[in-house]
């Protein structure tokens, strides 16, 4: 419980710094993994998609399972520490990878770490903050997290120039900020001792989840069916004529915008309510995707990518704030995990649909489809979530 309103919890500060360090390390590695696979290890291009698809799917699914484990044990810190430790270990494994299957193992371990830690980390933020300031705290965490996503790729470009494109040395350097983050977690995170719930088996206490939470899951699933992989935005940028270098810069611009707006979005959510902020986020997404489908001039990309960053800021941390107000604390990790798993499944279908629309139709169709799904979701959200029945007691 936060003793004074409008404060950022000490735990959230530590988690934010750790997320920053981990994202610096991960984003140093992530953009160059496809290049490393194809140019150094000689892997065929389809392997890149296989590795990232498998790793991301596993991450989403594990969030649900480990969220339930965390709720049953009523422990958060061990899962957060182990999750970040897995990610740290993966960078060392990348240094030693001599074939693409070993890169797959490293990437799976990296994303497994994300699956282990995410639900428990979000639950720890929820339990460490006052109800009225939760949006501010989630926004603060996401700001530092997304700042790491900006610093990482920029640092990678600089280091590769110094290292003369020695990818293995880059992977080794990335190990150290991630390691510092794990040490900070072990030393500084404080968790209240709670009695285990004594539940058996892998199950979610649906009886403790109200209808508002279930409705939000449904609407989020529908929306995410149109929210295909960001790879399609990158492909669209190149389809319109931007070079690879300029496309990467637009990606950095997107992450920069996300970092700038994450904290304000959380503060706005605290003041006017997460529901209104989320509704605005759906509309922003619809505008961006419909515009991606309609534009012909590649320079519009420089406008749409940062606007998409605003959408991410409004819907990521704020979405978690919204969920946190619908569920009791004792099932919060499970609730976050169920949400992330459903979004992972929906994202898989979204990318499949987008790929079929692009291949069988044209490059515009995936974005028209996504924009229409966002409009439908916004209308459903507006109509079905007028009244939130809060289950958590005031912190």
Task: Describe the structure in your own words.
α6 crosses α12 (301-324). The chain has helices at 10-29, 33-40, 45-73, 77-96, 100-127, 134-162, 167-188, 211-225, 231-239, 244-272, 274-294, 301-324, 332-360, 365-384. It folds into 2 domains: 10-188, MFS general substrate transporter like domains (Growth Hormone, Chain: A, Up-down Bundle); 204-387, Growth Hormone, Chain: A, CATH 1.20.1250.20. 77% of the residues lie in helices and 0% in strands. The chain has 395 residues and is an all-alpha fold.
Helix-strand blueprint:
Blueprint: H1 10-29, H2 33-40, H3 45-73, H4 77-96, H5 100-127, H6 134-162, H7 167-188, H8 211-225, H9 231-239, H10 244-272, H11 274-294, H12 301-324, H13 332-360, H14 365-384
Protein name: Major facilitator superfamily
GO molecular function: transmembrane transporter activity
Domain Major facilitator superfamily (MFS) profile: 11-389
Task: Write out key terms for the chains shown.
395 residues, mainly alpha, Growth Hormone, Chain: A, globular, disordered C terminus, Major facilitator superfamily
- Average pLDDT across residues? 82
Strand content: under 5%
Please give the number of β-strands.
0
Helix content: over 70%
Number of self-contained structural domains: 2
Largest sheet: none
Fourth-tier CATH superfamily name of the largest domain: MFS general substrate transporter like domains
Unreliably modeled segments: 389-395
Structural category is: mainly alpha
What is the molecular shape?
Answer: globular
Total number of helices: 14
For the record, the CATH architecture of the largest domain stands as Up-down Bundle
Q: Quick one: CATH class of the largest domain?
A: Mainly Alpha
What is the CA-CA span between the terminal residues?
A: 6 Å
What fold name goes in the CATH topology slot of the largest domain?
Growth Hormone, Chain: A
What gyration radius follows from the Cα positions, in whole Å? 20 Å
Protein name: Major facilitator superfamily
Keywords: Membrane, Transmembrane, Transmembrane helix
InterPro entries: MFS, MFS_dom, MFS_trans_sf
GO molecular function: transmembrane transporter activity
């Amino acid at each position: 419980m936060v003793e004074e309103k409008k404060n950022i919890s000490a735990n959230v500060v530590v988690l934010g710094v750790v997320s920053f360090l981990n994202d610096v390390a991960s984003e140093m590695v992530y953009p160059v993994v496809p290049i490393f696979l194809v140019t150094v290890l000689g892997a065929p291009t389809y392997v890149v998609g296989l590795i990232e698809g498998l790793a991301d799917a596993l991450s989403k699914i594990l969030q649900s399972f480990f969220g339930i484990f965390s709720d049953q044990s009523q422990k958060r810190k061990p899962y957060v520490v182990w999750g970040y430790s897995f990610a740290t270990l993966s960078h060392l494994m990348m240094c030693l990878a001599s074939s693409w299957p070993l890169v797959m193992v490293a990437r799976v371990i990296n994303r497994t770490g994300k699956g282990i830690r995410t639900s428990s980390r979000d639950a720890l933020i929820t339990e460490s903050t006052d109800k009225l300031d939760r949006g501010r705290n989630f926004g603060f965490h996401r700001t530092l997290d997304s700042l790491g996503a900006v610093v990482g790729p920029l640092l990678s470009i600089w280091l590769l120039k110094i290292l003369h494109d020695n990818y293995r040395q880059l992977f080794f350097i990335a190990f150290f900020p991630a390691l510092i983050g794990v040490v900070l977690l072990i030393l500084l995170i404080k968790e209240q001792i709670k009695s285990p719930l004594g539940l058996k088996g892998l199950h979610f206490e649906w009886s403790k989840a109200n209808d508002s939470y279930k409705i939000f899951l449904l609407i989020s699933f529908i929306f995410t069916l149109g929210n295909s992989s960001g790879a399609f935005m990158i492909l669209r940028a190149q389809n319109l004529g931007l070079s690879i270098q300029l496309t990467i810069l637009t990606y950095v611009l997107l992450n920069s915008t996300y970092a700038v707006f994450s904290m304000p979005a959380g503060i706005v959510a605290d003041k006017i309510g997460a529901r209104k902020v989320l509704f605005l986020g759906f509309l922003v997404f619809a505008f961006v995707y419909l515009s991606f489908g309609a534009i012909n001039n590649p320079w519009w990309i420089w406008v749409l990518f940062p606007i998409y960053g605003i959408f991410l800021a409004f819907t990521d941390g704020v979405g978690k704030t919204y969920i946190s107000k619908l569920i009791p604390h004792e099932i919060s990790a499970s609730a976050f995990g169920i949400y992330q798993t459903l979004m992972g499944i929906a994202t898989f279908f979204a990318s499949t649909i987008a790929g079929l629309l692009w291949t069988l139709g044209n490059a515009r169709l995936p974005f028209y489809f996504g924009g229409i799904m966002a409009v439908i979701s916004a209308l459903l959200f507006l109509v079905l979530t007028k009244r939130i029945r809060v289950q958590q007691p005031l912190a």
